[in-house]
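ok so for the tutorial part 2 we go from a plain amino acid sequence to predicted structure tokens. step 1 is just haveing the sequence, like this:
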Amino acid sequence: MSDKALRLGTRRSKLAMAQSGQVAEAVRRVTGRPVELVEITTYGDTSREHLAQIGGTGVFVTALRDALLRGEVDFAVHSLKDLPTAQPAELVLAALPEREDPRDVIVARDGLKFTDLPRGARIGTGAPRRMAQLNAYARAHGLDIETVPIRGNVDTRIRYVRDGELDAVVLAAAGLNRIGRIEEVTDFLSVDTVLPAPGQGALAIECAAQRADLIAALGELDDPFTRAAVTAERSLLAALEAGCSAPVGALADFLGDGQVVKEMRLRAVVGTTDGTRMVQLSTTGSVPQTHEGALALGSDLATEMLAQGAAGLMGERAH
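step 2 — the prediction. this is what the tokens look like for a chain of 319 residues:
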């Protein structure tokens, strides 16, 4: 590889720029080459519609991938949960670095935790997945909440709370960590309460499939445990034929004795946004040693969920 600067395609949002900057620094370390950020505006950045309305799947990704295919950038960084599950043959996920905290968090007024919110509390989120699980938890535990659909970047969402329009908003821990604002969190939601989006907290570094030298270099940043986990999660999402705005939560984690990882557990949930009907299942098996093994873990669990009526809870399914 030459020593000229590598061009990293990134969305323009504060969060995207922060995480792309962190990846750029890591790529500089492993390649010895300078990396320059190339800012690209995506449809998801300019549209004011709710993600559920514009389909969610790919709205933050297509413009970056087009720039890759045209050779305008050498590689791109995505939030993995924004990526459609079908991978184009011309592009490859060269690295999935070690995952950040996958949990959802609450930023609430007066420093409140989720279970301490007052009756009738208004909680903002753009994700049907979060609405479904928060409403289901509230219903099961006698809480009275109203989930309110919102859009916007982190600043915009937190401002709804600061300005008194909402009692709380739900955000991803990973994003707040990456922009240095984790101290604003008032409650971390246990994954037993709210399962994250498939791939949440993970980044994907993507480049053209014919760039073998670059794929090898970027591969230094790949974390095999992260790759196994998110491959299973995304396989489940694909088998459910659900897009990334569908009310599907999934998380694969690893079980062991603190020294040795022995098993991988995959948990998943599908529910109606009002939380009245849910299908929630899990499976545990040996840690997948191959890509195909991780795919099978996800698709097998999806098959069980579909047998229990998951398809009918997702609204319009993605194809």
